Automatic annotation (TrEMBL):
Membrane topology, record value: Multi-pass membrane protein
Membrane-spanning intervals of the chain: 21-41, 61-77, 84-104, 110-132, 152-172, 178-196
Protein name per the record: YitT family protein
PANTHER family named in the record: UPF0750 MEMBRANE PROTEIN YITT (PTHR33545:SF5), UPF0750 MEMBRANE PROTEIN YITT-RELATED (PTHR33545)
Amino acid sequence: MSNEPHQPRAVPHSLLEDVQGIALGCALCALGILFLTQAALITGQTAGLAVLLTYATDLPFGIWFFLVNLPFYWLGWTRMGARFVVKTVIAVSLVSALTALMPTVLRFDYVHPVAAAALAGAVIGLGLMAVFRHGASLGGIGILALWMQERFGIQAGWVQLGFDGILFLAAFALLDPVLVAASLLGAVVVNLIIAVNHRRDRYIGR
């Protein structure tokens, strides 16, 4: 008889589990974005890149956000499969809708920038973990980060943290340094949550 420990068999998520997991993750991310916007902060990832490109050019945010995501969707399709990309498109669309809806049902009289950044980072980090665990992402660098984790074993959070570091260095040249510094705190919280908790050796399949 083999003395090797028994490895539990991975059980795929059901459709209902994917729906509730992605929906919850997207709602948390939208809530985090609300914290950021209420305090006039910026965000990281491809959304943050699109914001900086908007400041530097005459093109609006929507066009830049679409353009910067195109190569990442291609990477997701070729390296991680159509199922992953379809789920990602659904998740991105849901966050977009919830982000537009949430200010009509939830408002804050005052949120300190540091508190807003920390709270946003926490809820966005948890939201991204839920989205990741159900085989999707929120596009852009998230796709690259998940692919590098699968391909090279580099934890997704560290990939995103590295990208955000470069992005925020550029932001200091264009935006209010105090708000950029507060925004950076939020990005660090997001990526540390993912780096510490979203690990292949702690999960069984997807």
